[in-house]
Structures are given as structure tokens and as C-alpha cells.
Please model this.
Amino acid sequence: MENNQTNFVRLGDEAFLSLGAQQVAYVKAVNLPDGAHAIGIFSADGKPMATAPSVEIAQALIRQHDLEPALVH
Model:
């Protein structure tokens, strides 16, 4: 008889936040302090990394750093 149980490991908050940190960067629209609109680039744990004038440029910057872009709505 096979054991079909799945064992789950509970991740702490820090471990959960670091998932994907080396593979993914998130892109979302942001407002800059001067009131201008831009596209923000954020690490998987939510830390701001850069801004770009368009989604296309943000995605290119992310890929140049060997990361995969993911859009945040």
C-alpha cells in the first residue's frame, strides 16, 4: 500500500519573502516624489530597485540582470 501523504514545511516570514529573490523582479506603476509617473522595479521581497519610463524598458533592464519580470496589478 502506497503512502500518498504530503509533508508540508512551514516557512518563516523571512524565508517566504526570499522565495524567488534570485529569479524574479516585479514591475508596477509608481508615482515619483515630483509627481511624475514611472514604472517601479522591485525585488521579490518588495525592496525598490529602480524606476524606468516604460514597462518595456523595465522588463529589458530586469532581463539584462538575468531576472524574470513579473507584472503587479
